[in-house]
Amino acid sequence: MEALLCHKLGDPALPTSDPSSPIAVSASHPVPALASPTSVRVRVRATSLNYANYLQILGKYQEKPPLPFIPGSDYSGVVDAVGDAVSSFKVGDRVCSVAALGSFAEFIVADEKDLFLVPEGCDLVAAGALPVAFGTSHVALVHRAQLKSGQVLLVLGAAGGVGLSAVQIGKVCGAVIIAVARGLEKVQFLQSLGVDHVVDSSKENIIESVRNFLKTRRLKGVDVLYDPVGGKLMKDSMKLLNWGANILVIGFASGEIPVIPANIALVKNWTIHGLYWGSYKIHRPYVLNDSLKELLSWLSKGLISIQISHAYRLSEANLAFSALKDRKALGKVMIVMENSSMRSKL
Ligand SMILES: NC(=O)c1ccc[n+]([C@@H]2O[C@H](COP(=O)([O-])OP(=O)(O)OC[C@H]3O[C@@H](n4cnc5c(N)ncnc54)[C@H](OP(=O)(O)O)[C@@H]3O)[C@@H](O)[C@H]2O)c1
Fold first, then answer.
1. Whose CA is nearest to atom 18 of ligand 1?
2. Which residues contact 233 (CB under 8 A, 6 or more apart)?
């Protein structure tokens, strides 16, 4: 089978012809065998890029697999083979899931308990982008911060993978949404989704812009801060938070880990949630399972939609990583397997 191999650490956005490129497509990688009676082999249709996949190949992610490895986490596809004891799936079923590694390949094997049926009517490529981004935002906003209708949600990095999913889930919850993104294209896109206020971080002061908006709506401040960016944006955002606010620490796309002063958290009664979604699979698997089932039902009802920004073939994975690295993504960047009508939009 075809599989993308990371054979050394480095920048996967480099052209694959560059000798420093850490990734290469192998055309003859062995098809994975069913590992147990409850194993299911899936022919991958689409797999999404998450910032963590990029960091992992760079060697800057908290989980460092031994080399060589096949990167990739969330994916969708069609069941190709099932173990003797599999009871919930049959060959031909459309499924999606998330793996620790290995989805940048034509086939992947998972245990049946880790697979989710993609409802009729849901696009299979789109379903491959749902687990990590929407799963993270759903657990963060609904399970941890318990976002309520009418509360003010501030989303940083709002046009990126997790950011855009937070915007959509915030809307389903009935929150007033303030989104922060860089550049006119992202701002116009977020406005077209009906976001209440968008701050263009390339030219506006976030504190001033948000305070003016809150004043016009007679709102006091931000109730929930969703932060996948960190750095200065997070530091400024803290000045906008209400008494009793929830801070969701999601990631550090800026490369700068912010400091949240404990004395201010005390005085303002803030709750700070560190959230590592992948670890729910080990510590609270039922939360993650219920969350993904709810999201798939929202997707089938049209309450959320998945914005695919760029789609590439496996052999073009370096271009996919470039789109992420260069902050071009409006939603999700995907790898779509063969027979696809979707082409790169770069
Ligand atoms: N905690 C968890 O379980 C979990 C789960 C998924 C993702 N994450 C983390 O969340 C972060 C975002 O992931 P993602 O998949 O949504 O990535 P993404 O699609 O690339 O989005 C990241 C956003 O961050 C903004 N950004 C600000 N400064 C940046 C910089 N210096 N470089 C790159 N982007 C920058 C960009 O928006 P502008 O260009 O508009 O500023 C971009 O849209 C990552 O740190 C990732 O590891 C955490």
1. 160
2. 156, 180, 201, 206, 227, 254
Atom number, ligand 1, closest to the C-alpha of residue 277: 3
Ligand 1 in reach of 276 Cβ (< 6 A): yes
Question: What's the whole-model pTM score?
Answer: 0.95
Could you report the per-residue pLDDT of 46-81, keeping only the tens digit for each?
999 999 999 999 999 988 999 999 999 999 999 999
Closest by CA to 324, choosing from 333, 311, 315, 316, is: 333
**167 to each of 56, 90, 181, 187, 309, how far by Cα in Å?**
26, 35, 12, 13, 16
Pocket probe mutation, ligand 1, options 63, 229, 330, max atoms within 8 Å of Cβ: 229
Cβ–ligand 1 distance for 329 under 6 Å, the answer yes
Instruction: Walk me through the domains of the chain, giving residue ranges and CATH numbers.
Output: 3-129+306-336 (3.90.180.10), 132-279 (3.40.50.720)
240 vs 278: CA distance, rounded Å: 29
